[in-house]
Amino acid sequence: MKETFSQLKYWYRRVSVAGAEYYNAPYRAAVARAKRDEDDLFMLLVFGEMMGIPNPASWYTLELQPLLLERFHDWHQRMGMERSPLDNMRCC
Question: What is the pTM of this model?
């Protein structure tokens, strides 16, 4: 009896995961695009002051710059800038 219950529980989990995948699949691209747009806005907020955009939260965003440096190159290319817009920071 315990073995049957365990198998039923296993199959229930698999069906639950498959159902979640089925219902989330059409929205996956839209969610990924929204997350990327949000990340781009956050990156602009963090590096904006270096590009001449006044930032009232520069004290807090300054601490985040080293954490985002690895993604900076992808970001400025996605924003349509072939080279780094920052004079004192060259990534490519």
Answer: 0.63
